[in-house]
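forwarding from the other thread:

> can someone predict this with flavin-adenine dinucleotide?

sure thing
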Amino acid sequence: MTNLYQDSDVDSAIELARRLLLRSQELQTPEEKRQQAELDRMIQHPDDKATLVQWTDQAFRTQTPSRVADQLMHILDVQGIPRFFSPLDQTLLRGFQSFGGYLPGVSVPMVKSKMRRETANVILPAEDDVLSEYLEKRQRDGIRMNVNFLGESLLGETEAKHRLEKYIHALASPQIECISVKISTLYSQISSLARRHTVGVLADRMELLYRTAAQNQFRYANGSNSTKFVYLDMEEYRDMRLTADVLKQSLDRDGLGNVRAGIALQAYLPDSYEILEELADWAKRRTATGGTPLTIRVVKGANLEMERVDASINGWPQAPFDKKIDTDANYKRMLHRLLQFDLAESICVGVASHNLFDIALAMLWTRKAQAFDRVQFEMLEGMANHQRRAVFEMTKSMLLYAPACKREDFLNAIGYLIRRLDENTGPSNFLRHTFQLSLESPVWHHLVADFRDACEHREIISAKPRRFQNRMLACESPTEASHWERYCNEPDTDWTLPVNVEWIEGKVSGWIDRCGENAPDIPLVISGREIIADHRHCGVSFDPSRPDIVACRFAMAGKAEVDLAVQCGKQDPSSWRSTPFAERHRLLRQAGNHMRNRRGDLIAAAIADGGKTVKEADPEVSEAIDFTEFYPLTVKRFLDSGCEESQDVEIAPRGLVVVVSPWNFPIAIPCGGVAAALAAGNTVILKPSSDTVLPAYLICQCFWDAGIPREALQFVPCESTEVASHLVSHHDVETVILTGGTATARSILRTKPGVDLIAETGGKNATIVTALSDREQAIKNVVASAFGHAGQKCSATSLLLLEQEVFEDKKFQDMLADAVRSLSVGSAWDLSSRIGPLIRPPRNDLARGINELEGDEFWLVRPQPVGDNPHLYSPGVKWNVLPGSFSHRTELFGPVLSVISFRKLDEAIEIVNSTGYGLTSGLESLDDREQLHWRDSIAAGNLYINRGTTGAVVLRQPFGGVGQSSYGPGLKAGGPNYVVPLMRFTERNRDLSTTVSRKSKSKPVDESLVRMLD
Ligand SMILES: Cc1cc2nc3c(=O)[nH]c(=O)nc-3n(C[C@H](O)[C@H](O)[C@H](O)COP(=O)(O)OP(=O)(O)OC[C@H]3O[C@@H](n4cnc5c(N)ncnc54)[C@H](O)[C@@H]3O)c2cc1C
């Protein structure tokens, strides 16, 4: 590599940056100074930034002026008048605060148009004639324009088609030379997991754009012509490789060798360097066969906050560097590489930055590399325009990135505005300091020092990805948490990383043939012995994705085997109950580690036997590991408790616990019950659902292989409901953990009223969407919660309550219908299926819910059978459902969402509470007053605001309901107290356990135990 870098470059670049700064200050207009001053005042008062974000984000969500005015006034009342506004604007706002509510029809449009005016220089109007006029003016000044049509990421495929048409229309417009697009605006069903499928669809769509670009000429001010240019912006880390692959795959197609195309790479991602090299090699091959060079725009990266949140929620390391100096160093390293002579013929470079030091360094290196013909400087419209003018004066090269948005789509600009605001105010960002930046100020010296440091770091900065999870490798148990509160959840699989996709593809293709003749035969495990099925006692379960194919055969217990198992569980021949806690804990951690290392097999078993998709099964394995690791920590807390009361309390297991698990969470739920009961020292009999014996058996193998005796954990699928009932009502069974239907819980209590039943039962869960919600976000959350695992989750949203304004909003209806219709329904073995099969063809309530309408109900989207597999149904949305109707009150457990309208939030809360269930509940509203009121009035165990209602997480978000959704003590699964009813607490010859576990008797919980729980 030729070294363009010399130590003296740093000083030269600083000198050049100094000159750029001085010149830009001379060029700054009074209006630009006013805006900068406003921004500077905002930086001095960070609370004011929050006010502005709340204003832009919340108030204009509704179309009702009085509601807008009310929300604006509420924000002003709570936050105060922002101090960054000019004195005149502050006075106007005070007037609005006092009188805005009286004449909302006048005041709100005034506020709206003021906001549009204030942002007009950052976001261009996208209406054809106005935009064309603007672009022509810029081009007359010699500035090239790159137009980006702002829009939220897509929800559905109809919208995707519209966006594609919009881009094609733009490329045909004579005034537009270049457009920037993001892959998330081209396809609504992007999936890192279904990589091949996703890249294929996106490449087809990009091909259309590239062909249009190649067919349309742009005429420059100097009279020369060229074809149009399409840039691919970079968004999230998960899109990085996909975007690069889409670019290569589409441009490799016939006849596209001479298309002018570019891609952005983000320096805050260390992995970008590797992608740069891959693209450079590809571009060399392309130009070697006569193709056009590829343009690479180097940016630092605009989504730091979002990447931070994403990493923290998923328990993954943050993909971008966490220090600005590293990003800055990598930026320089990438620029240096791109300016090398070996890329002179194949790569053009976009230097995109507002940092005058980096621009100056790029100018120096460009001159050294004699590369001015292949380097362009790129800046953002409306951001420090005076600096842009100074850069243009010196380089005569400028591509100005101009976001555009139509008047009616102004809300779509919010995300962009907030990103820019972050950049302008971020603590270490260059633009934050530009207002009063003088060459003598300490800030200038500070920036100079940072620049020097970053230049020094340039050669040592690591290009090693910060996200490196590799499922192909064996895992070790992580260090044990010192306390249950410090437990770190097991991370789900990071599908962004191609190695993990390759891993699951291998697992899936290895398992797809382990069915039919090759299907496993699963024994009963009773009294430490395996009992193989004889002809009479053999159960068979089928693969819901291929209902003719056997997923497994399994032995089934009759009453005699049940008696044997109960006797063994009671007698505890392996002395599990008296095994010291430390040993139990060690074995359980070992079991958790087996699950870690068998993740792929567990997922595949859930696909084969339960019809779960990979995306749905993977988090289940994480949850199973969490249960196994977390519950012992919560038991330990009681044994270790140093409080005075613990000296007087004796803690012992309850004895034998029967776990009855369902088919819809075939990994996590059986594992959770077993792990909790074993951790508390009990012997356990697991009776899995006969639909999903295979994953439950694999889970048990993890426990047994860890060294937990087969006498302590027995595996007993039952041959009939009668035998299962014999098990749970057995006179030697005291405690039953059930996850299943409300009717099953009632039936157990009827058969054996004295049993200690810990039951998580059904739900008729609702999400309320008010007029003050982010409607697109609401649709995204509701669709995921309603149709994940085909709606077969007890936590699924099955009722959608819309405030009248939203209910009547045609755009909302269209977006919801589009999002639902776009979900692909298919075999769970197919990684691109978003919705897999039902466990069985619809019958009873679900059949009625899918096939029948009442009163004035109609289908916004009609559920339909898909192909010839009767387990496959496309999702449906039933509109205009009335309170009290069948669909309102009945748990359907399938892919049907029933929509009810309401006028006032209280009315909606009443409708939700009247179902009698109370498992999960959601609210979509950005108004904190609505959020508080809803939180205090809704009756449900798990409440979710502005997010989906499914996906509980151990410790962070334990799971459990109220009302008909829970029987027994009501302690949440995955919470710190779940193990309490599985232990016996005795104080001075007095047994406390009944007071804790039998809520029905409603005795007060003993004081000393309460203090221990605290
Ligand atoms: C023409 C143009 C096109 C763009 N296109 C894209 C695009 O396609 N995709 C995209 O993501 N962005 C894009 N951006 C935005 C860009 O990524 C930067 O966010 C923005 O330009 C600010 O960087 P800077 O070099 O101008 O300023 P600087 O102030 O020097 O750098 C600010 C940047 O440093 C990084 N940073 C700040 N703090 C930290 C920290 N603690 N740890 C690690 N890094 C940190 C962040 O990336 C931040 O944006 C574009 C910018 C321009 C000018």
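The first helix runs from residue 7 to 27. thats all i got for now
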